[in-house]
Amino acid sequence: MASHRRPKQPSRARVTVLTATAAAAVALTSQAAHADPKPTKSEVKAKVDKLYHEAEKATEKYNGAKEQQQKLEKQVGALQDKVARGQQELNTLRSGLGSLAAAQYRSGGIDPSVQLFLASDPDTFLDEASALDQLTAKQTDSLEKIQEKQRALAQQRKEAQDKLGDLADVRKTLGENKKQSQGKLAEAQRLLNTLTAAERAKIAEAEQRASRAAGDRVELGNEVPASGLGGAALQAASSRVGKPYVRSATGPNSFDCSGLTQWAYAQAGANITRTTYTQINQGTRIARSQLKPGDLVFFNNTSHVGLYAGNNTVLHAPYPGAYVRYESMNTIGGFQAGVRI
After folding, report:
1. How far apart are CA 245 and CA 317, in angstroms?
2. How far, in whole angstroms, is CA 65 from its chain's centroid?
3. In this predicted model, what pLDDT tens digit does every residue of 67-91 receive, in sequence order?
């Protein structure tokens, strides 16, 4: 007769493990279903471009702070030299006053009426008394000069101290802007690293094609510059096509955006300031429809600048990793203003 055994029931521990495993599997499946998809090549490029613009803002502020730092350092040095010379002059005046005081003591240690009574030769005494009056007058003049010099020195020291305080603030700003710029660039690089080498190569190739096409449009346009100065600046900048963008560089072999425009105008014989925020105030503002080759063109809330090259094209230093090149104004976007130097 066959034996009918009751099936063995699974233990409570085994049921718990199986339930937990199933729940974890469901959770992972749910997470995978709701995970953010990998950004496309065009999405990465858009985010990277935005980060480059933000880094450029910080870089221009860094450049401005660097320029201010250099000016303050010169001013502080000049003030400190002035204080040192003033202190030396004060020491000389004090030394002279000491000599006068000693001479007065030797000549006037006894009351003048007693000296006259005791003098064997009254005429000699009167001569000495006159000399004593002259010494006293010189002493008074020296004291006035010392007091004046002390007041001047106190003012100069305060001015130097104030400048040193300003310099400390500028150095702090300098560090903050540098850190911000480097952070944006690092973030942009991390995004680029999410693309394959082939995808990055396609982006670079597309940019090169666009730059060549923009350069061809400039040749075809053949617009007349607004002035000989603007034409000479544009010609100088065109000789730098292909040079790399380097943060805070001013040429001749690497540039950031405002470094290129400053260098180009310097070659044409005009000294313009260092940053986009100051260059925009150095000439006559003009509308986009009035632009001529050589005019400065500003983008993205004046954080980026290039030289108008004609036919709706700009010659500029775009961003880290890129090179000085021609580019359509429509591609750059965010036109802010035109300035004619």
Report:
1. 6
2. 3
3. 888 888 888 888 888 888 878 877 7
CB atoms within 10 A of CB 334: 12
Q: Which of 298, 318, 155, 167 is nearest to 240 (CA)?
A: 318
CB–CB of 52/320 below 8 Å?
A: yes
Instruction: Pick the closest to residue 225 from 307, 298, 287 (CA basis).
Output: 307
190 vs 203: CA distance, rounded Å: 16
Q: Is the dihedral of CA 233, 239, 241, 242 positive or negative?
A: negative
Distance between CA 165 and CA 215 in Å, rounded? 49
Residues 56 and 300: beta-carbon distance below 8 Å: yes
pLDDT tens profile 87-123: 887 777 777 666 655 555 555 554 454 444 444 555 5
Strand partners, 284: 340
315 CB-side CA count, 13 A? 30
